[in-house]
Structures are given as C-alpha cells and as structure tokens.
Design a protein that fits this description.
alpha/beta, Rossmann fold, 3 domains, six-stranded mixed beta sheet, five-stranded parallel beta sheet, globular
C-alpha cells in the first residue's frame, strides 16, 4: 500500500482511558453502596441540581407548553421515520419451528427484554434525537418497562424538548439525572425498582465507560464513546461539502475524531485550507470543540486508489462513514466495517443523526468490526427451544451418550441411557 498521512492525529480514541476507568469505577462502587441518596449527592455536586429525580407528569406537561407547534411537528417528523424504520427491522425478524429430523422439532422465539435503560445526553447539547432513537426503538421491540434519564440543568431540570420527546416516544419513567450516576441508577433499579436488563444510548467517555464496566451484569447496546466520522472522497467530491461534514461532527466535542480518506491530493489540500476557516466561523462553544477535535484527532489520508481507500476505511471502522465518490454500488458491496453508511453527497451524517430514519446510536473505537448500531434486535432475545417424540430419542439419545463418554462426561451420557431404557425396554443400544 502507498498510503500517505497528510495530517496525523496527536491522539487516538483510546487516549485518557485509564483515568476515565478509575473515576467511573469509584463512582459506581459508591452509588451501589449509597443508593438513591448517593445519586442525589452526585447530581447536586456535578450538575448543581436538587429538584425531583423522577420527573412528574406536571413537569412533562409544562415542558410541552414551552415548545412551538412547528418544533413539535419536527420532532414528530423524526419520530415517525425512526419508528417506521424500526418497525421494518422488527418485521424482518421471525420466529420459526422446523422439523430438522423425523419427529425432532427445533425452534426460535423472539422475546423482548423486560426493562431497558435509555441514556439521553443533555450536557453541551440537548440531544432530542437520541431520545427518539433509543426509546422509540425499545418501544417497537416490545420492551415492557422503559426507563430514560437525561442530565438536568441547575434550577431547570431536564431540557424541556428532551422531556417532551421522551414522553412522546413512550418512556415509562424519566429520571432527571445524567452521567455515571444516571447510568448507575438505571442499572441498579434505583427510583423505579426495575433494574435495567439492557442499557442503551450515546454519551461522553464517562457514560461509555460506565456501560463497559457494568456489561455482564446488564446488557449494553454497544461501546459508544465520543462520536466519529470518516469520509471517503475522490477527485469529483466537493471540498466545501467534505469540509463542512467533517466540521459537522467535530463540533460534538474536543475528543471527536474526524478522518478524511481520499484519492485526490488536490481535494485534500483544499479541505485542509477550509477546515480552520469553517471552524472559526462557528459560535464560540462549537468552535472550541471542533478546533480541539480537528487538531488532536483529525486525520487526512491520501490513498493511491479506491481499494486502498476501502482498506483504510475498514481499518478505521468508523462510527459514521460517508462516501462522496463515484460508483456507490461498488462501495456498498466492498466496505465492511462501519456503524452507518451514507452514500453520496446528497446525504450526510446529520440527516441520520436527526430524522431520516436510521438509528444514530452506533459503535465507536473500532467496535464496528463486530457489531452494528442500535436496532430493534438489541432489545430482543433470540432464544431457542426443542421438542421431540420418544421415537426421535432412539437416535439422538444414543449419539448423545456416545459423544458424552468420548468427552469423559459420564453423567451426561446416563441422561441418554435412562431414556433409552424407559422408551425402548426391549432393545439394546451401543452407547459407548
């Protein structure tokens, strides 16, 4: 390969993991011991919030009144499309039973988890779309108890648009608590009595680490840390659009990687020139975040051909992957590792993030090598069952006994022996 890094990141998505892990481990241990009181203590300390932890119906109604009808219609627009896509996902999953041998039936059932905990970020930005992506998908899956949490603001509580959206999408309980303490509250069943079977939703590195540590005690959607974008662009791509899309994700935070993979040196040079200009033109908070992200985590990779570009993209395994290059069908068939794919200039990450239909809760830090994003299937257990006649035991029990003895597992073997003796008392079988 003849890959050339025209810009190399100073940091990687794994930078700072050790300190994060130590802090989160301590917090989870304290919350598990101290319970609801410790959650309230952290909420007061970290968010300067001392209001209701469990959001009341009156607070939800008040939040609704703060939204214009136009904004409610926009939220409904996004909700309808995310719900529709989730419904199609659910329809694609099927239960079945098959007679795989005479009188031996094996089957599959799809059972929703009982309780889902949905984390909705609300610190730097009010992530209304995250409420839609997580709660709506859980609802379509058939989850019985949906607990959602979002960080509160001092003297304000949860952002009113987030509250309205969580209620619209079907959250059964809403907690005004964020960060590690919010994740812990849902995992341990604090304030609800319903410990989460699965935790879902994006968040900063502390939220992501809390989910990682708790994984095993509860299920999680995926390892979703700071957001990532990669763009594959050829000579025909518009450098202004490419740079704009990179900046569009970099504004998430100072640790949000943005990668450009291109076969055109000219395009790379034009994007390099435009990035600081576009970043400087943002409002101060967004500009500071994007500047740090691009400086410390941004990369530009020059490849000789599209196959090299595809290989480099698969190495990144980016959360969001845009292709602004010719022959979309080739890229769709060739690319393997990404959270969600955006083909062509006409679509962009922000569309998927907000309202076009696909889910924006996606794998980061290379996890796209082995998992996709949040889907209806994440909330559903695919379980198996079997049933068979006594006659079917004639073959299965004997084979089981022989394999068990080959493995040295005598007690296993005797479970087959016992059935053969009962069902076929007049016959003899070779079971060793």
């Amino acid at each position: 390969m003849t890959i050339e890094f025209l810009k190399k990141a100073e940091n990687t998505p794994k930078t700072g993991e050790d300190d994060t892990r130590r802090i989160v481990t301590e917090m989870l241990a304290e919350i598990e011991t101290g319970g609801e009181d410790k959650v309230r203590e952290y909420s007061a300390e970290l968010d300067e919030y001392k209001g209701n932890t469990v959001v009341t119906s009156e607070e939800i109604t008040a939040a609704s009144l703060k939204l214009s009808q136009k904004l409610k219609d926009d939220i409904r627009f996004a909700y309808d499309r995310v719900r529709t896509f989730a419904e199609h996902q659910r329809e694609s999953m099927t239960e079945f039973e098959s007679e795989i041998a005479p009188e031996l039936f094996c089957g599959q059932r799809l059972i929703p988890v009982e309780t889902a905990g949905c984390y909705v970020p609300g610190g730097r930005y009010a992530h209304v779309a995250s409420a839609i992506m997580s709660v709506t998908t859980a609802k379509v899956a058939g989850v019985k108890n949906i607990v959602a949490c979002a960080p509160p603001k001092k003297n304000e509580g949860v952002n009113y648009a987030i509250l309205y959206t969580l209620d619209l999408c079907g959250a059964d309980t809403i907690l005004a608590v964020g960060g590690v303490q919010g994740v812990a509250a849902m995992a341990f069943g604090l304030f609800t009595g319903n410990p989460a079977d699965i935790l879902v939703g994006p968040g900063n590195r502390f939220v992501a680490e809390a989910k990682r540590i708790l994984y095993g005690r509860v299920g999680i959607d995926l390892f979703a840390g700071p957001t990532e974008i990669a763009i594959i662009a050829d000579k025909n791509a518009d450098p202004e659009i490419v740079a704009t899309d990179l900046v569009g994700q970099a504004e998430h935070g100072p640790d949000s990687p943005a990668w450009l993979i291109t076969t055109s040196r000219e395009l790379a040079e034009q994007v390099t020139k435009r990035m600081p200009e576009l970043i400087a033109d943002l409002p101060e908070i967004q500009s500071q975040a994007a500047e740090s992200a691009w400086r410390d985590y941004g990369e530009i990779v020059l490849c000789e051909n599209r196959e090299e570009a595809a290989q480099q993209s698969d190495n990144y395994s980016a959360e969001h992957l845009e292709v602004q290059a010719e022959d979309h069908d080739w890229w769709l068939k060739r690319l393997r590792n990404y959270g969600s794919l955006f083909l062509g200039e006409e679509t962009t990450v922000a569309f998927g993030d907000k309202c076009s239909g696909t889910n924006h809760i996606l794998p980061t830090k290379g996890a796209a090598r082995y998992t996709g994003g949040l889907s209806v299937g994440k909330f559903i257990k695919t379980v198996t069952y079997q049933r068979m006649s006594r006659e079917a035991n004639r073959e299965v029990a004997a084979v089981t006994a022989r394999i068990s003895r080959l493995e040295g597992m005598e007690a296993h073997a005797r479970t087959g022996d016992a059935r053969l003796r009962k069902y076929f008392p007049a016959e003899s079988f070779q079971t060793s």
